[in-house]
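To illustrate the input format used throughout this study, we show a single complete record. The first block contains the structure-token representation of the backbone; no residue identities are included at this stage. The design step must infer an amino acid for every position from geometry alone.
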């Protein structure tokens, strides 16, 4: 049985004695009742390559880890169901199997149009000591979106030996979980 003491309510008096109105803490609590957070986390568990250099390719996602009022449709991007400002974050694990360093760009398209100032440009070192070059690129943006809008992540590279690489879980020489090639999260930040 739940007691009134178990509820996550403000620990201040309900009424402000100077104004005889609900206190600020209680007002914020009451306004938030019934509102659910809007968020989504999506990953790619498969490798992604390019078939031509210096050509844009859409990055795909294949798994929803958690989501509420945001969803992805394979081949069509991540869709939001509420108007608002969204905190959009991504990270991509990029592999280079060539002996030379190579460059790549990753950026966001919203409703099929490139979003200004969202390109992340980076270089990945070549193989060294018999191991391929790895680089994790990550960025964070705030985007204003309308219900029904969608975003996609696109990339281009100057070598077909570059790929977005997902890694399986390992058990030796130590235990480590799988590593997705692409991680995208969105969270609505305004009410």
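Output of the design step:
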């Amino acid at each position: 049985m739940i007691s009134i003491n178990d509820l996550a309510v403000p620990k201040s008096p309900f009424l402000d004695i100077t104004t005889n109105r609900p206190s600020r803490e209680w007002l914020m609590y009451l306004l938030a009742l019934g509102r659910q957070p809007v968020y989504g986390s999506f990953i790619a568990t498969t490798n992604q390559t390019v078939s031509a250099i210096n050509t844009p390719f859409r990055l795909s996602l294949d798994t929803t880890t958690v989501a509420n009022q945001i969803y992805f449709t394979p081949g069509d991007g991540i869709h939001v169901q509420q108007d608002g400002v969204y905190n959009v974050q991504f990270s991509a694990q990029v592999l280079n199997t060539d002996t030379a360093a190579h460059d790549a760009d990753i950026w966001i398209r919203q409703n099929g149009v490139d979003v200004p100032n969202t390109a992340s440009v980076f270089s990945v070192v070549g193989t060294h000591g018999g191991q391929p070059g790895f680089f994790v690129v990550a960025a964070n943006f705030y985007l204003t979106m309308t219900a029904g809008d969608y975003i996609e992540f696109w990339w281009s590279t100057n070598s077909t030996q570059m790929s977005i690489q997902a890694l399986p879980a390992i058990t030796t020489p130590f235990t480590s979980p799988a590593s997705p090639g692409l991680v995208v999260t969105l969270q609505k930040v305004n009410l």
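Structural context for interpreting the output: The first helix runs from residue 24 to 32. Helices lie at 24-32.
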